[in-house]
Amino acid sequence: MSLPAIAITKLVKRFGDSTVLQDIDLEIPEGKVSCLIGPSGSGKSTLLRCLAFLEEPTSGMITINGEALGFFEAPNGKRERLPPAQIRAVRAKTGMVFQQFNLWPHMTALGNVSEALKTVHKLPKGEAEARALAQLRKVGLENRANHYPSQLSGGQQQRVAIARALALEPKIMLFDEPTSALDPELTGEVLNVMRDLAAEGMTMVVVTHEIGFAATVAHQISFLDHGRLLFSGPPSEIFAKPRHPRLDQFLDTYLDRGASMLA
Amino acid sequence: MTIKLFTLLLQAAISTLGISLISIAIGFVIAIILSAATLSHKSIYVVPARLFISFFRGVPLLVQLLLIYTLLPVIGINVPSIVAAIVGMSLCTAAYQAENLRGGFESVPRGLIEAAEVTGLSPRQTFFRIRVPIALRLTFPALINEAIMILKSSSLVSVVGIIEITKMAQDLASSTYLPIPIFASAALIYLVINSIVALIGRFAERSLGGAST
């Protein structure tokens, strides 16, 4: 079996006295889509933010393509912080998409996508913009390149944000509830871009409430509750009965909501 | 009221404009440093910056100018009055601009900074490429307001011996016995200058319109 894209071992995250993640062990296979689901406050977003190193784990270890992210933890528990250059190099393997898009409002769509190519990768302006434009084309927004974020719909903003992450050619894409801030009729265009990306074989970790998306696109679904990983497996297993009572209850809530929307 | 008198007022307006614009520019640079210091969360930077800001916001500009003008020679620094005027005005406006900027910096959504972090921008690149431009856009109206306040407060520099619009008007009024047309002209000149500043501000704000939210 090949090396997992991400390996999480005994991951613990505490904020002060409260433990947000408790002993998470999870392997995310390469080229697959892995969805993290669970109720609010279950720690799924915190887990994703740990993968992006926006949160520093309290203990435990994350490796990305076999390389330690942020900290190296020896089997005897001795832990050391890695040098900044190494942290940057490992972080560069991932791209992140946020719930609130987080496009920079003072730059056009093209500016947002080309910014890191220019400032971090030192590409000449022309080349950076050509690559940025190619990414915008990929998400179907080539004709919005010169629009500012405030002139774009939420769905378009999120697609620009995806293009911004893709422009840096990450090995793994992290999505933190990418459609939760969108009107229902705008979620489709973002999910379609994500489906295309999955079809290309991109490794993706997606925190989502879109159970339908998870069921149809994910290869692996992980269910978190109160900071613990209660279940992880292929969709066929997670939706099959019998299942963990807490997961059962969680999925029922979604089914109820779906039914009430139809009523 | 003759053309000659009006020309004298206009000449004095050049010192008003010059001193104000130079002070606003110097004050802006100091304000960036001060606001960065107050946001640093390190008390060796925060405490001096806060003290600086409280002093220059808490003491009248008139008193600051008189203090600087009389204090500097005592400690062995002899400066021309124009330097004393610019120093006083710069430090004063720096304190106000710093508070405006701090508000702007604090209003930059955390997520925009995280987006810079995950795309690999260094803290320095994030500061100059993301935080400063967004904070500036958020504080732009307040900064234009401050520029207008400083242009008007520049009438106080006459106490250190600078002839600017107000001082010139007073001198002309007492020598010609035509106070009303002269002070009315002075008022008109201030109004025109500040209207132009406000217009430039509006124009600049609108040209950044796409970046408003």
Structure characterization notes:
Chain A is of the alpha/beta class and 263 residues long. Chain A has nine helices and twelve strands. Helices cover 38% and strands 25% of the residues of chain A. A six-stranded mixed sheet of chain A has the order 8-9-10-3-11-12, with helices on both faces. In chain A, strands 2-1-4-5 form a four-stranded antiparallel sheet, covered by helices on one side. Chain A has a two-stranded antiparallel sheet with strand order 6-7. Chain A is globular. The relative contact order of chain A is 0.16. The longest helix of chain B is centred in the first third of the chain and has 36 residues, at 3-38. Chain B has 213 residues and is mainly α. At the A-B interface, strand 8, helix 3 and helix 5 of A face helix 5 and helix 6 of B.
List the main descriptive attributes of the protein structure presented here.
heterodimer; A: 263 residues; alpha/beta; six-stranded mixed beta sheet; four-stranded antiparallel beta sheet; 38% helix; B: 213 residues; mainly alpha; MetI-like fold; 8 helices
Describe the structure concisely.
The complex is a heterodimer of chains A (263) and B (213). By secondary structure, chain A is an alpha/beta fold.
Integer tally of domains of chain B: 1
Rg calculated over all Cα atoms of chain A? 19 Å
The CATH homologous superfamily of chain B is called: MetI-like
Assembly type of the chains comes to heterodimer
Helix content of chain B: over 70%
The counted number of beta strands of chain B is 0
Give the N-terminus to C-terminus distance of chain A in angstroms.
Answer: 47 Å
- Structural class call of chain B reads mainly alpha
Overall pLDDT of chain A: 91
CATH class category label of chain B: Mainly Alpha
